[in-house]
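Example 3.2
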Amino acid sequence: MKIGILTFHNAHNYGAVMQAYALRTKLREMGQDAVILNYRNQTIENSYLPWRECRYEQADWSVQWDKFNAFIEGVLLEGHTSEIKFENLKRLAIDCFICGSDQIWNSWLTGGLDGAYFLDFETNAKKISYAASKYTFEITDTEKKYFSDSLADFSAVSVREAGLAESLLKNCQINARTVLDPVLLLDANDYIPLEIPIKEDFQFVLAYYLCEDSWLDECARKAAGLMKLPLIEIHFYRLKDRQRYQIADCGPADFLTYFHRAEYVVTNSYHGVLFSVIFRRQFYAVYKKDSRKDAILEKFGLEKRHICSAEEITCDSLECRFEAAVTALEKERKSSIVYLERSLGPKCKARE
């Protein structure tokens, strides 16, 4: 079956590109001819301008931009870089369109609800969503009709969070399954071929900043101090404090390697939490309030990894046990793959 995936593959965001890679990889393991379609939402595209047009104008950031671009064009698009316009999606020779994952139904990110991510075009192909998400689970009064009308045409609807599934049922009478983020469909060994060598040949604590946060600063430094290890920080752009060991030229492949090599991870990122679980890295998730992170930590029985301040970090609280999380992940992964199998058709079965 020829499957076209519509997602945020062009975002210069580690979680965005890795979830796109993971979904395509899993579908191909299932025997499908899956490709990532090079449709580019302009609001997403404009959020990641080439470094010369960006206000940061840092040499590190230019390297990071080039690494992301190379990964997107070479790994995700496999050299097929011609952009596909919305009006041409219906003309593609596709048997099934899958929209997702990521926050493709977040109107703030996409500059208004984007019809491409609702498969809002005429086609004889099957329509499926996989782990679609939005920042808040609320579907506003102005969105309800569009969600209802668009998703009613789907063969199967799945979302990433139970809260969004509940909202779809309540507001749009759409029954949606809850499935795993695509990155969790693969295990650590599936990501190793993407990794590249890094210059650091010593043990370290890794702090990954989705956004800058003084609470995360304090927590990361305390964890590194208790473990008596150097702290390496991954930032989107380099901060002025030159005393910190900062990495701002990190591409997707480097990102995987740093997570795999870290002795400990401290992060405020949703996908930072997921890759900590995938690589079985001891970790803290530092944030005040976030229903998405709450949901995934609860699913895996890792609620105690959520902290709000450095005061919660002690020698006794450093250890993270993954036994229950591994069992829960295997169960949820199997359920998510079954959803894909059944949605695609009776002849589709994942390889053991």
